[in-house]
Write a structure and sequence with these properties.
The complex is a heterodimer of chains A (about 300) and B (about 500). Chain A is built from twelve helices and no strands. Helices cover about 75% and strands about 0% of the residues of chain A. With about 500 residues, chain B is of the alpha+beta class. Helices cover about 35% and strands about 25% of the residues of chain B. In chain B, the strands form four sheets. In chain B, strands 1, 8, 9, 10, 11, 12, 13, 14, 15, 16 and 17 form an eleven-stranded mixed β-sheet that branches. In chain B, strands 4-5-7-6 form a four-stranded antiparallel β-sheet, covered by helices on one side. Classes of the chains: A mainly alpha (about 300), B alpha+beta (about 500). The interface between A and B is large, with 45 and 50 residues.
């Protein structure tokens, strides 16, 4: 277990280094932040541009800039924003709860919906209920999340006025954006729970349990579902990355001051340190989630042990 | 007698009470500039907010006329009009209590023109100022190193906003970026990046106390969300209503659309270094092939005005007699034949992919060019890459989008930067006559001469078809009916002093 953990942590370090190197390199291909400061306004002189590059430190070799960033990151210092002049770490820490809270709320909604619906569809395979669940989830998979978000805003924010259409104003603000993300994730997860459970319900040990006269609820919930959830947990773990990507878009729709808008603004202003810092923290978060997913397998299936 | 005095006191108290700022006005705009330091920005989004926090020596009102600001009057002195003397307003204080005086003016311009300003985009607008000299506490001279006929207007906004020396010196740059202090009608209370900026009325404001007590700017990137917030009654004013959503506000109760002609104009610039648009006949043919009125009617739903030169009617240098090239596809075909351009010749149109309106415009222009037997291709770019790399380095096709319009409302701001040889934004075009006129009008304060010179530049631009001016934009503001006294600002810079909010 400890060996496994150490190996995975070591892998994560290399993944993080790879991601930060890639992001740091590619954003520098997008152009000069000194020029970006003048976007469509006045005409900078070469002397001005040189002065700005010196101030920002972008006149130094890339390797030097990258090593500085990594060494700083190891100390918890992600650099200084080109745009605001403030520390990147503070900005990322301030935004982290909004984004991760939204992602977790969406995840919770998706699981709360997907597991019972998937089980229901599997237990009533071929019935009208199964058909209805499959059709509804197919609809859910077909909606782009920004469209669903705008529809939810119009219905619950504008017409019914039950919920704030946008903004980050407390727990009630989480409802619409997390529903937007959660409903779409719930659609794919419901279908996966259904098919995984159907597979497991055909296994020998389930047949044996039934032959022994174990109640059907106990067969499904105590024996089959735990095993069926392993691929679901893997899937949901993998979806965290996609969910964070979805959050970036949904943050725009719902005017949500999270890491997504921070990263998008950083791209727009070519704020290298801010983008590097935001991506590093998000990548770290996703790597940790994937580690937790791997560790959860043993809890779900006692047969699984880590060497 | 006693009851009369009591009545008078009560009436005074009530009238005083009524004059007190009250209520909250919430404005949603699409962009958060991320830094509120005046020397650190070029965004219109900054101007929308900055005009409520800061003041300049002069003030430009909603009628776009220049009047006294922090200076009550000014005059040109010196033998060559190289010294601009300002007489400052007495008794003004910054939001933090610092006094406004000549030292604050000197500090502001020393900072703008010094090392700190050099690292920002505003300094280049004020390089005509050589130095600032304090005459006494309330008199200050701007000593010019070179003439700048647009300087007075420039002193009304952006980089020339007066900042408090003590606050700026005693705090780090990030603090001033985040929680700026000015002399304006509203004081900054709190700033949550990408969410909101909260301000409260400055009851001691020298132009009088605002009518509203609290002012909140919310930053909502998605236009349909801004409109939804307006329709839900949670904001009072929505900036940048998309044309496609204007109808839904007009039809609904509780809000209205206020449209105002913007200084921003849109054009397709020609690449003079690439065939076939290096030939004036081809450029003229293309100008005749494009139906501006049709584009404005159909795509802009009427919220636009055709233009003949790359400026709006608000611009100094506008010539009302200059008319756009008439839509005449047959003439266009004849001109192309005369230029020896074979049917099916490829022309590339570059523009910014995220601009939904211009994407439609570009598609329509492409179809119009197909009518005259050209073969257009459309290439889209990301905004920053487009403006910072593609245009300055001339890595664009035959025609490329340009949206322009300085807040100074002077054609110099457009023509000098886009037409003068060797300018950053003009990688290719060169014409001696245009260069001469542009240089001459910059070297004099004779506004009649300048106007004639700029009009002549516009006529030359038209004759040489330097670019293809399309239309002047109209900015659409969604305004809740409970808002009174709001005037949509043509230059995007709010003056909210007389705005009130009912129930």
């Amino acid at each position: 277990m400890v060996t496994f953990l150490l190996r995975r942590l070591l892998q994560s370090v290399f993944v993080l280094l790879g991601i930060t190197l890639f992001v740091s390199f590619t954003i520098r291909l997008s152009g000069d932040p000194a020029v970006a400061m003048f976007q469509g306004s006045s005409a900078p002189t070469q002397e001005q541009l040189a002065l700005i590059r010196e101030r920002l430190g972008t006149d130094r070799p890339f390797v030097e800039q990258y090593v500085d960033f990594v060494m700083g990151a190891l100390r918890g210092d992600l650099g200084t924003s080109f745009r605001s002049g403030g520390p990147v770490s503070a900005a990322v820490v301030a935004r982290f709860p909004a984004t991760v809270g939204l992602a977790l709320a969406a995840l919770a909604i998706s699981l709360v919906l997907a597991v019972p619906l998937g089980v229901l569809a599997a237990r009533r395979r071929g019935s009208q209920v199964d058909l209805a669940i499959r059709v509804v989830t197919l609809f859910g998979l077909s909606f782009p999340n920004f469209w669903l978000g705008i529809m939810l805003i119009l219905i619950f924010g504008v017409q019914l006025r039950w919920l704030p259409p946008s903004g980050y104003e407390g727990p009630v603000s989480f409802v619409l954006p997390s529903l937007t993300l959660g409903l779409i994730l719930a659609s794919s997860t419901t279908r996966l729970v259904r098919s995984a459970l159907l597979d497991v319900l055909g296994e020998q040990y389930v047949v044996t349990a039934r032959a022994k006269g174990v109640r059907e609820e106990a067969v499904v919930y105590r024996h089959a579902l735990r095993t069926a959830l392993i691929p679901v947990v893997t899937f949901v773990g993998l979806q965290i990355g996609g969910l964070i990507g979805g959050v970036v878009i949904i943050e725009q729709v719902f005017a949500w001051p999270g890491l997504g808008s921070l990263a998008l603004n950083a791209i727009s202003y070519r704020d290298y340190p801010m983008l590097q810092g935001t991506i590093t923290v998000l990548a770290l978060f996703i790597a940790l989630i994937n580690l937790l997913v791997d560790l959860s397998y043993a809890a779900l299936d006692p047969r699984i042990r880590y060497a | 007698m006693r009851s009369s005095i009591a009545t008078i006191v009560l009436a005074l108290a009530l009238s005083f009470g009524l004059a007190q700022p009250q209520g909250t006005l919430t404005i949603a705009q699409g962009q958060d500039p991320q830094s509120w330091d005046p020397i650190d920005t070029f965004f219109l989004a900054w101007g929308m907010v900055g005009s409520s926090i800061f003041d300049g020596l002069v003030h430009r009102g909603l009628d776009m006329q220049i009047g006294p600001g922090l200076a009550t009057s000014w005059e040109w002195i010196g033998e060559d009009d190289d010294r601009l003397r300002f007489y400052l307003r007495q008794g003004v204080t910054f939001h933090n209590g610092e006094p406004f005086d000549a030292a604050a003016v000197k500090f502001t311009f020393d900072r703008l023109l010094g090392e700190e300003g050099a690292a920002g985009p505003q300094q280049s607008n004020y390089t005509s100022i050589d130095r600032v000299e304090i005459v006494d506490d309330l008199t200050v001279d701007l000593v010019l190193g070179s003439p700048d006929p647009v300087l007075i207007t420039k002193l009304a906004g952006y980089g020339a906003m007066i900042v408090p020396p003590g606050y700026v010196t005693n705090n780090d740059a990030e603090t001033f970026n985040r929680l700026p202090v000015g002399t304006g009608p509203f004081k900054v209370i709190d700033y949550v990046p990408d969410d909101r900026l909260t301000l409260e009325a400055n009851a001691d404001y020298f132009r009088g106390a605002p009518k509203i007590q609290n002012l909140v700017f919310r930053f909502i990137i998605e236009p349909s969300t801004r409109v939804a917030e307006l329709q839900a009654g949670r904001i009072d004013i929505a900036q940048g209503v998309p044309i496609s959503l204007a109808g839904s506000i007009e039809r609904a109760t509780g809000a209205r659309i206020e449209a105002v002609g913007s200084p921003t104009v849109s054009s397709l610039r020609f690449n003079h270094c690439a065939a076939p648009t290096d030939d004036v006949l081809v450029r003229r043919a293309i100008a005749h092939a494009v139906d501006r009125e049709g584009i404005i009617d159909v795509i802009l739903e009427g919220y636009g005005t055709p233009i003949a030169s790359f400026q709006s009617a608000m611009s100094f240098g506008f010539d009302a007699d200059l008319q756009p090239y008439a839509y005449d596809p047959e003439l266009a075909q004849r001109l192309l034949a005369e230029a020896g351009v074979p049917a099916g010749t490829r022309v590339q149109i570059d523009f910014i992919g995220s601009d939904a309106i211009f994407r439609e415009v570009a598609q329509v222009v492409a179809s119009m060019l197909e009518v005259v037997n050209l073969q257009p291709t459309l290439v889209t770019h990301e905004t920053n890459t487009y403006y910072n790399d593609m245009v300055p380095e001339n890595r664009v096709g035959n025609l490329y989008y340009s949206g322009w319009g300085g807040w100074t409302l002077d054609f110099d701001n457009t023509a000098y930067l886009l037409y003068r040889t060797g300018q950053f934004w003009n990688p290719c075009f060169s014409n001696e006559e245009v260069d001469r006129l542009l240089a001459e009008q910059r070297g004099t304060y004779d506004q009649d001469f300048r106007q004639e010179a700029l009009q002549q530049v516009a006529r030359l631009a038209h004759e040489l078809v330097i670019d293809l001016p399309l239309y002047q934009h109209q900015n659409l503001w969604g305004v809740a009916d409970r808002v009174q006294g709001f005037v949509a600002p043509a230059d995007d810079r709010h003056d909210l002093l007389n705005v009130s909010v009912g129930n």
